[in-house]
């Protein structure tokens, strides 16, 4: 590293300087990268397959790709789907083909935020991934099932990275403070244990957020000084007031269980506790939408509309006024009859799909068979809606509650 490289390096954000350089430095992902794990072995033996790395922000997706770049003998092309043009993608594909054709050398193309690519652009990767002209590493924070076209997803291994544990956050931030080359070791700073604990709690598994907050606190602390809890609090962009991460999840748990148990006063109390502690009201609304579908369900289908309306009201009017539609939705959900039949039905269906073969679509239902008869026009028509092997299954069982009582009575007519 020459003088100019050093100057540029020193101007990089702390989170960038502290990026893992080796597999051993990648914390918190032992499930896929621990000693002896398949992916680690493939990386160490330079047999990297096409893969999609899925996980929340700052869990190490890009860092893992850059570690692979450092270890592989293949050519490595780094792209970001947000700013990627079709011409740039075509150029990368042609370059990969040339490397293979003329030099017999593999090319790894890393595409960050791959979920932002349009489906037709994703489809253009299929031939070169399938014939091995290039090895694709895609990174996404979104659901692969919804954002990556199935043909591309099926040609790639999927690896899920998880948020870092609190112990990992503490270890990495302490290392950043003591590292003389990449961190702030030269400043000879210390940090109070309660400040470090607070920092690890408040970042919610996001190491980038933790390092950004630490950097801000360091820059406001004198050489050889001590980073206090107050400085860390000022540096953190978001923190629950006076509660730990454990308390945070306990409050959420108490709120959800009170909704499920139809305890209106209790649910309102836990709602107030969360709002007072600084919990994002949109997060609360999302939990209520889930509850409306999972626990109220078909006993009162309007509950889902009320919960979604509360979420939209928060976005439209903001706090503190949004506390009123939130409270209205809480009361409505608590006082509603309950049924989790839809939750049970989809759980059974997913379990069935996992445990059985992928049976073919019956000929009656195929798009091009010409055998389908509209039952609205021909009420007596006989159609096969399920594969023959699954003809006798029962996934949905209505419960005798609220609106769903009508469906229950229909099923149980003598």
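^ structure tokens above, recovered residues below v
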């Amino acid at each position: 590293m020459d003088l100019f490289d050093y100057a540029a390096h020193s101007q990089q954000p702390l989170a960038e300087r502290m990026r893992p350089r080796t597999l051993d430095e990648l914390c918190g992902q032992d499930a896929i990268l621990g000693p002896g794990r398949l992916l680690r072995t493939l990386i160490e033996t330079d047999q990297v397959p096409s893969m999609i790395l899925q996980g929340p922000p700052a869990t190490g997706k890009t860092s893992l790709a850059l570690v692979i770049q450092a270890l592989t003998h293949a050519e490595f092309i780094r792209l970001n789907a947000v700013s990627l043009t079709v011409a740039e993608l075509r150029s990368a594909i042609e370059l990969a083909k040339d490397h293979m054709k003329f030099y017999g050398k593999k090319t790894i193309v890393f595409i960050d935020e791959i979920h932002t690519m349009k489906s037709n652009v994703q489809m253009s990767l299929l031939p070169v991934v399938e014939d091995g002209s290039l090895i694709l590493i895609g990174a996404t924070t979104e659901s692969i099932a919804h954002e990556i076209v199935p043909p591309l997803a099926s040609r790639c291994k999927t690896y899920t990275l998880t948020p870092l544990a609190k112990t990992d956050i503490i270890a990495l931030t302490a290392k950043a403070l003591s590292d003389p080359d990449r961190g702030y070791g030269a400043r000879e700073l210390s940090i109070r244990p309660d400040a470090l604990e607070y920092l690890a709690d408040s970042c919610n598994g996001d190491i980038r957020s933790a390092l950004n907050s630490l950097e801000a606190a360091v820059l406001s602390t004198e050489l050889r000084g001590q980073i206090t809890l107050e400085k860390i609090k000022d540096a953190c962009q978001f923190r629950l007031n006076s509660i730990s991460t454990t308390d945070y999840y306990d409050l959420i748990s108490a709120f959800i269980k009170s909704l499920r148990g139809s305890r209106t006063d209790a649910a309102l109390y836990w709602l107030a506790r969360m709002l007072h502690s600084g919990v994002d009201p949109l997060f609360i609304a999302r939990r209520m939408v889930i509850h409306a579908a999972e626990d109220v369900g078909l006993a009162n289908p309007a509950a889902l509309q009320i919960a979604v309306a509360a979420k939209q009201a928060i976005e439209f009017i903001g706090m503190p006024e949004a506390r009123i539609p939130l409270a209205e939705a809480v009361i409505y959900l608590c006082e509603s009859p309950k049924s989790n039949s839809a939750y049970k039905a989809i759980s059974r269906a997913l379990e069935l799909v996992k445990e059985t073969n992928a049976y073919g679509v019956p000929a009656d239902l195929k798009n091009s068979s010409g055998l389908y008869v509209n039952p609205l026009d021909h009420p007596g028509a006989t159609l096969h809606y399920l594969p023959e092997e699954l003809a006798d299954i029962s996934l949905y069982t209505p419960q005798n509650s609220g609106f769903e009582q009508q469906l229950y009575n229909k099923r149980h007519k003598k």
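The beta strands are 51-54, 75-80, 107-112, 135-140, 157-160, 190-191, 226-227.
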